[in-house]
Every structure is written in structure tokens, then in C-alpha cells.
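Each record in this resource describes a single protein on a pair of labelled lines. An example record follows, reproduced without changes.
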Amino acid sequence: MTAPDADLVRAVEATLFASDLPLTAEQIARHLGAASVRVALDTLVSHYAGRGIELVERGGYWHFQTAADLAHLLRREREDPRRLSRAAIEALAIIAYHEPVSRAEIEAIRGVQTARGTLDVLMEAGWVQIAGRREGPGRPTIYATTAAFLAHFGLASRRDLPGIDELRAAGLLDPIDAAYAALTAGESDE
């Protein structure tokens, strides 16, 4: 990797600092009239590593954020955690793993109807967005996760979602596996 131009690194840093929204590398390069800013971004990531703020990429968008271990110092008032319903958590997981997905597909996977308010809550949180309409009968609305979803859960992309082996290792699938084993064992006794 070649050493980046110090002026380009400073310009990328200033652009990201002044922007009120996260930016893609391409947007930064266009804004600065530079061919590529990737090396400058890597330099800034290294420079800010272990400091009070850090440069991170979430879903292809770059932004500065407070270091996770210091975030508590900046909170002026205690945030009341807003709990999602089980239906909302299930719908969010289905959208994240199967996007783009329609309401009918979410309901088919869950096995029950999904209330309209469930998807509204996820869209209000900024984690889910309407991604268009599926080509087919009725042209149903399809949903996908957002960059805010990735940022909130600390994911660089959807590829970073845990796989089935990781979920099983975390003990999140054990109750399901045990219930399924008990169900199939009961069927073999008949």
C-alpha cells in the first residue's frame, strides 16, 4: 500500500467531520475531486484507533463515532430502552436474513399474521425501509434493512450477521432444537 498524500488525508478528515451524514468513499472522492480516498480512509482508521473518537464504516458509509467505551460519559440523561415486541424482533430478523422480503413472506416464515404496526415500529426506528415493490400479482411492498440498522448493531454489512452455528454456540437455538427433538421423539413412539 502506498503512503497517502498528507493533504488528502486532512481533506478527507475535514470532509467527514463537517458532514452531518455518513458518506461513502465515492461521495468523498467526488466531493474532493480525488481519484480514490481508500488509502486516506485506512490511514485515518489507524490514526483514530484507540482514541476518544474513531472512524468506522457501516454499510459502506464512513463516519466518526464516539469510542464505545466512552459513550456513557456523553449521555446527559438516562435513555429509557424501548423494548421491541417479540413479533417485531422476529420480523426484523426475517427481513435482515431474507431481504428484500414482503409482508406475506414474513408471515409465511413466522407462521402467523404480522400486524401493520409491527413494521411501522421498525421503520420508525429507522432499521427497516420500503425497498420497492415485487414484480408479480398485486405488486406487494418489499422491505429491507437500512444503514442505521447496520450501525445500531455494529455490523459492517449483512454478511456479518451471525450464522446458524454462531447462534447455536450462543445458546439461542438450543430451546428450539430441544423442542424439535422432543417432538420428533414423540412421533417415533407412535
